[in-house]
Amino acid sequence: MEQRPDAIGKERILYPADPSLHLVGDSAAIEEVRSLIRYAAATSIPVMITGPSGSGKEVVAKALHHCSERVDEKFVGVNCGAIPRDLLESELFGHEKGSFTGAIAQRKGQFEDAHNGTLFLDEIGDMPFDMQVKLLRVLEEKQIERIGSTQSIAIDTRIISATHQNLDQAIAEKRFREDLFYRLSVFPIDIPALKERRDDIAPLIRHFIKKIGGDEIYFTREAMDILENYEWPGNARELRNIVERAVVLFPGIMITASQVSSLFRRRASTAPTYQEHALPSSFPSRGESRPFSYVAGDGSSKGILGSGFDLKKHLMQEERKYLLSALRMAEGVVAEAAYLVSLRRTTFVEKMRRHKIERKMALVEPQSSSTRVE
User: Fold this and answer.
1) Dihedral of the CA atoms 48, 52, 58, 64 (nearest 10)?
2) Distance between CA atoms of 232 and 86, rounded to whole angstroms?
3) pTM for this structure?
4) Higher-scoring residue by pLDDT: 156, 13
5) Could you give the 3-state DSSP secondary structure of residue 74?
6) Which one of 4, 191, 244, 323 is most buried, counting C-beta atoms within 10 A?
């Protein structure tokens, strides 16, 4: 809880923290989520957060905890789909020494660890069916028993669960207990996919840049149009991935539409082993995902061979020319220039040193129209 003055001259009173401090976005959908958090934070009823993977369900869960009276207690998160079935019961409820092979000491479970605080059960839809029965009993009785013990331990834990699955379908297919669903989903909060709240994209980009640190990055209006009209199948998690990649590849540089398109490549190109006799014939589009291919020409050597011809010097001159061309096309971004000629960045830097090439040699043309995201 944070203290704020109610009015000048009046006694300071306690208010819950504002969800706006934790949730980023300007859309009507995210404002509705903030409103639901304000209502739920005033109680300790179970909350279920639904939404596609990467949409920010854990962010909402933490915001709810920080806006509640339990803010000074622990927030404990458990991914129910990531823990092996045989270990999940011990993870949640704890165990006594010697209760099973490998139990060399007594261990508290996450329910005890989150006593008086909040327990976040992520991916609850992946919880094994037999564990759902045990969880339901804990929610009804508000007490747990460690594995290997007959002693009950009272717990006061606020439960927030989350899933990307369609639990109605899971219930129909007998994969999820309907009675457990009603226990967990007393107060539902749904987070729409990022493609349904495009007003949040620019604020999220600014937020991620600030969290990642490093140089500022800038986008032309055309580049922002691409970002705002992309479908974002990975939602906010994918957007952060793109921003992190942009900060590495384009620090302090205006990012154009073709450059931002190149950030969506899912796989890095595999650079072929560089051979000194192999020279690139042309540069690919910067948005292309194919690796750059090397060709050795048409095989004709007439007109260049003769007395005194120095092949090594000729190849060095050609290599320097293509390194400079790649740097200029990449507007001085070494990592992008290395991609254009299918070299590792470290190899490209070494060749720059060998040819005494500096980044400032790249010709950077100013953009006439841009959008600054900072």
Assistant:
1) -50
2) 35
3) 0.68
4) 156
5) coil
6) 191
